[in-house]
Fold:
Amino acid sequence: LLLWQGASVLVHNSILLAGPYESLLALCTLAATSSFWLSILYTFLKITLGFALGLVSCVLFACLSYRFKLFHEFITPPVSVIKSIPVASFVIIVIIWAGAESLATVISALVVFPMIYHNMLSGLEASSSSLIEMGRLFRFRFIDKARYIYFPQVLSHLQSAILISSGMAFKSGIAAEVIGRPLHSIGNGLYLSKISLATADLFAWTFCAVILAYMFEKAVSLILKKVSAA
Structure:
């Protein structure tokens, strides 16, 4: 903070570099408006929904790929395409097809999908063949196989991927909002700060985005710890 304030004093131009005090004042000013809190709430809910949809679809697709070789061969090229295409391209496509309001949800889901899918599939493929054979020999029910054989193997592969992708979901979702500019969103606030050259507002919105991403990652980490301890 001291280095930041010192650099701001040296630059002596709030457009180029607003200091922490100016950014704090901007944050307090924004926090006094209802649209600020609506923007934070809507962005958080949309990105959380996108992350959840991406996670559920990853689990489903990975299980199908593990069970059916033909499905695995069919789904591999699209997953590679999703992993390779720039987020900006997806943003433009989604805006054309679905509009800006669902942008953060769709982009967050697409960004987390490849990473979690590959780790989920790797965990399933690394499952102990002897344990699987034991389950078959003792006629385990499907739910018992999933809980006692596959789940412990998969969880070790998934934990790091889920934590990393949770942060990526917020970064990509908010970046998509900057391009699409849906009403009541952090991305729209960042865009308005840019066109009005309000650097202090830009830092204030960025601070909110960082805090939201941090809280979400900590919540996901806590859930993973409880699940692994269950």
The first helix runs from residue 2 to 11. The chain has a mean pLDDT of 86. The two ends are 42 Å apart (CA to CA). Residues 131 and 149 are 7 Å apart (CA to CA).
